[in-house]
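Hi V.,

Quick status before I head out on leave. The structure for the redesign project is tokenized and pasted below; the design run finished overnight.
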């Protein structure tokens, strides 16, 4: 009888996730961008001196890196010009080639919604125009930096709206710039909008479907960083992005995973993440995410609160953070802690 009662309570809480405090019921379901990028068929049909090119769907980032290490500069540039969408998204390919490939790929779309991404000096590490578009941008010198952080954002982020005006220090790029500045520009920071995020507060936000697809992409992305010699990254995971990070945790070599404004990480505890990374958590006093029930039932909800003592994450002081997006505001305790984690100074 007690078990039945607990099940009813859990079911009621799960229903609240969808229709209650957060009002999750109104947005359209999104189709996750998965698989290799557009242009893969032509890439597979091509060769270099009779040698097949690494299959974007099957080759590991390390295999990709070894392939490019065996090419001379003219042949590598030929591949960039012939297959910009593939090279630009090929984890393990040299960073300068990916930057150039993505500049060409953005321009080739001819779409005004993406045009600003091709501006001079931008370091676009990934770009896929399918659907709402995905994008990753590097701030700093990723090839030489001793410290690398990756911002994993939550809902309502994509390549289409990546450059739209936002409040200062919010959005993937704003968070990345703020963090890099807080480290004294000693860390390279990547704004990774590399998965299909939920839109609005619909069922996608309450489910793990998009996070599961995103977790696969995030794990491969970090594997690609390792393949080109970048140091193990720190993952900063905001809101629904923390669900992505929770699912990717066991498959990444991150030194630290920071969940903030999190609805849960699809795990009951740090041990359930199956990671050797240090796990941190922050939640501001006025963050509306605290109104979301921390349950997981019948595929709805994302589980335990990462800031709870039972979860076991290291707590970050966020008592001066305003709202759901204020964690990177200059002068806040959270940003100071984030900078220390990003540079390896936190204990």
């Amino acid at each position: 009888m007690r078990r039945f009662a607990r099940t009813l309570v859990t079911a009621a809480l799960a229903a609240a996730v969808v229709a209650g405090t957060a009002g999750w019921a109104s947005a359209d379901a999104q189709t996750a961008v998965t698989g290799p990028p557009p242009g893969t068929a032509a890439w597979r049909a091509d060769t270099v001196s009779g040698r097949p090119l690494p299959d974007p769907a099957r080759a590991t980032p390390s295999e990709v890196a070894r392939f490019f290490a065996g090419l001379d500069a003219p042949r590598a540039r030929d591949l960039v010009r012939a297959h910009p969408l593939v090279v630009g998204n090929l984890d393990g390919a040299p960073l300068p080639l990916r930057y150039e490939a993505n500049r060409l790929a953005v321009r080739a779309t001819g779409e005004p919604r993406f045009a600003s991404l091709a501006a001079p000096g931008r370091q676009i590490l990934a770009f896929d125009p399918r659907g709402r578009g995905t994008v990753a941008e590097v701030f700093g010198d990723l090839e030489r930096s001793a410290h690398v952080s990756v911002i994993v954002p939550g809902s309502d982020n994509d390549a289409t709206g990546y450059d739209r005006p936002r409040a200062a220090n919010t959005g993937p790029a704003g968070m990345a710039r703020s963090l890099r500045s807080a480290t004294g520009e000693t860390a390279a920071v990547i704004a990774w909008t590399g998965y299909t995020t939920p839109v609005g507060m619909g069922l996608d936000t309450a489910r793990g479907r998009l996070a599961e697809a995103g977790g696969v992409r995030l794990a491969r992305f970090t594997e690609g960083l390792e393949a080109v010699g970048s140091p193990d990254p720190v993952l900063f995971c905001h809101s629904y992005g923390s669900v992505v990070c929770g699912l990717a945790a066991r498959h990444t070599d991150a030194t630290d995973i920071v969940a903030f404004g999190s609805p849960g990480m699809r795990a009951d505890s740090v041990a359930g993440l199956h990671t050797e990374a240090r796990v941190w958590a922050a939640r501001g006093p006025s963050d509306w995410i605290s109104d979301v029930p921390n349950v997981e039932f019948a595929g709805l909800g994302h589980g335990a609160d990462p800031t709870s003592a039972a979860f076991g994450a290291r707590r970050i002081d966020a008592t001066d953070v305003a709202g759901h997006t204020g964690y990177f505001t200059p002068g806040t305790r959270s940003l100071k802690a984030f900078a220390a984690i990003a540079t390896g100074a936190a204990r």
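Above is the designed sequence. The chain has eleven helices and ten strands.

G. will cover questions while I'm gone.

Best,
W.
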